[in-house]
Amino acid sequence: MRIPLEREPGRAEGPVYRQIAAHIRTEVEGERLAPGSRLPPIRELAAELGVHRDTVALAYESLAEEGVVESAVGRGTFVRGGRDGDVAHGPPALSALVERLLDFERARPRFGSAEDAVPMHALVPDPALYPADAFRRVLNRVLADGGAELLRYGGPQGHQGLRAVLAGRLRRASTRVEADELVLCHGASQGISLALRLFTEPGDVVAVEDPTYNNALAATLGLGLRTAPVPMRDDGLDLAALERTLERPEVKLLYTIPTFHNPMGTTTSLAHRRRLLAIAERCGKPVIEDAFESDLRFDGRGVPTLAALDRSGHVIHLYSFSKSLFPGARVGAILARGRLVDGLLALKQATDLSDSIPLQAALAAFVDGGHYDRHLGRLRKTLRARRDAVLASLEVEMPRGTTWTTPQGGFQVWVALPEGIDTSDLLADAVGAGVLFAPGSQFHHDGRSSRALRLSIALADEAALRRGVAALARVVRARMGDAPRPERVHV
Amino acid sequence: MRIPLEREPGRAEGPVYRQIAAHIRTEVEGERLAPGSRLPPIRELAAELGVHRDTVALAYESLAEEGVVESAVGRGTFVRGGRDGDVAHGPPALSALVERLLDFERARPRFGSAEDAVPMHALVPDPALYPADAFRRVLNRVLADGGAELLRYGGPQGHQGLRAVLAGRLRRASTRVEADELVLCHGASQGISLALRLFTEPGDVVAVEDPTYNNALAATLGLGLRTAPVPMRDDGLDLAALERTLERPEVKLLYTIPTFHNPMGTTTSLAHRRRLLAIAERCGKPVIEDAFESDLRFDGRGVPTLAALDRSGHVIHLYSFSKSLFPGARVGAILARGRLVDGLLALKQATDLSDSIPLQAALAAFVDGGHYDRHLGRLRKTLRARRDAVLASLEVEMPRGTTWTTPQGGFQVWVALPEGIDTSDLLADAVGAGVLFAPGSQFHHDGRSSRALRLSIALADEAALRRGVAALARVVRARMGDAPRPERVHV
After folding, report:
1. How far B105 CA sits from the closest chain A CA (Å)?
2. Mutate to test the interface with A, among B325, B356, B360, B442 (most CBs of A within 10 A)
3. What is the pTM of this model?
4. ipTM more than 0.85?
């Protein structure tokens, strides 16, 4: 919910809570907020608007007194019923599954009112680093050469040339793979959806890392799947807990990010990977290996992927250009074996027939012409300098009791603040102080509060990253200095 | 299954059935066909290879005698079990839902061995008509102007400029719509998936036309939905049957193609649309209106879309550039109202985050610059001449008892042959005679045999279309002259 707020007392139309209430009242009266629809949870709206939770609570209370909304214990605050009861002529209801997905989406922090803040919240690569012009020229040449034939339906497997180029790269990284074992897709994100659907029926359970990538949680929710969280340690998944989880018959697969974990930034050892694979094989459960940042190693030696170690066809490996080049081509790839490829093709066909071939053909030529590797060389250097800047600033700025990971690649550093701080709560303060981060709660399947947060080095340069960490340290110290405030109770 | 066949007796390595058996044996020995996997049904493999069903049956029988495969009554023919029983180390099993989807896909006719035949089977627009060069120039300019910003994540709703352009076009066609009521997607095909998911949970039932678009049937199957078929009449859905179906509580929505129906080519009247909408509203069930060929009217007056007549927000309208321009941009749009837009955005985000913005931005400029309308003018003229050629040929060539529809737009003509002919059976003969068509069975939810077939004018020019119809007439007459042959029984 975007609510324009005027915070300067001289120009404002009343206190902030009244501005919020007035905006919501207007939305309800204008029927843009339908009867029965749920208002954002107080915590989330407060974070989004950069105001204290009490301010939002006050706004909701005054709306409830007016009869515009009503609260239901444990469920939230809802717009009160409409004027007529003729439900058959109202708009059709969304499925309960979509309603749950909307609730999940609504809980994401939004950063609308913070344009000047240092953007350390998102894993969106920096447009200043995209080789946009080189890509444009290659695309133009490919289209000039290929003409109309490139604009037909491409078939669900995607451009053969790009699959061959990718297979070659994967083989050089010691993963045995042929071009026909790759299915191109719409970023690794579509790869997650398709791979989940390959092995599950709605109602099934999938094992996920806790914490894990929030859009993978959204994908499971949207498919009607439940999640079985397995705790993450500093060196990767707790393997004893993983084994207990995968032994449960209703758990159908594991989704894991062994390299440059999201949100933790950690990479598992070869020994850990071997043990994980042995467990999965023994339980007969497939493993979705999300390798979305695998081309972004800037430090240390590469560890063989699960797909490279897999001898039994249990691993589905997801590759993406979205982080290492740019997201706008929407090209990722799924590596799978044998009949799994047939299943993926049938699902892709039933979902959207095929992807756009010109972009895939252009990527093939772009990689083949050496442009991609030249870009990777520059990008890795930049990211290494950025990571060093963030780690150095954390060392200098953060209060005692703060810990963080040291990623060897990718964008994300996972920071655990001293005990007692809820990073969702802290976000509004941080936005005000000029830095954005991703609070840890959004990476937990149950959205529980967390003293951890994810910092991203994707979008900001070194100077900005230093400013961002300094701002973060200021709000943490301020929060630690606060006397504990009693929670107001809202029903 | 692609099996290279040598049909010239002098060069062949034995009769065709032995070539088929040898190929399958090699696949099993090379472990490309895994133990337990199901061979294609006899009818489908025969159609795919352009051979008689007896030939395939003979091949399967000889493989069964060798112990390579085994048949299970009513279930099909399967590769016999592997050498070791250690199932835990075999590749992971696909979900039952994906297995059903693979069965469905396997039943599609394949046309691999028929390169010289007139292609009247597919709704793929003719690449000879694509304005590929004009589009390339616009895309190149848009990327040069927009640069790296166009290559970021686009957000789940898609390019604002293209949404504004499309909303303007829809308004001129009398559908009241704002740009923020459109969600861009990956062709109308992805639109079908997303719209189905908006209102259903797995296990729910969706009302579909019988016959209907086969990929819509695949989409429902892939989502774990069941279908309630409603009979199509010459003037559209049987509305009494529709009402009985939509009254069932487990039926959650209707999927319909009122304009240039696929596969029938028919368009419903304004009165029929009004009655259909009134039924849907009374039952409180949303309607997915697939308008995938709506820009391809070349004859008669346009009828307002269901979306234009909808006053209660029950209609989800799907638009596509895939047939009217080319499929390769993979751009379609979903028109929805109010909270349905929120639901679609959450689903799109959970499925693949966003589409590729450069292609959408280029399409916006292409339409805005008048290129699209100029292309449509040429295309409609061409399609009208092609339709006239097909209808004239049908009149001259086909035996008495054949009937067909007269489309006012789009690519498809629906032909019903005289009683007693199964068009799935006829396909192998037709391939041999030099024409491809889509047999009616593939448009029925249950794949039942049909004496109807769909002819497409999308890909072949007038002379080829006349040859194609003449070839079709020849095989129909030959079949009608045949004495009825006793079916061989295969268990």
Report:
1. 7
2. B356
3. 0.82
4. no
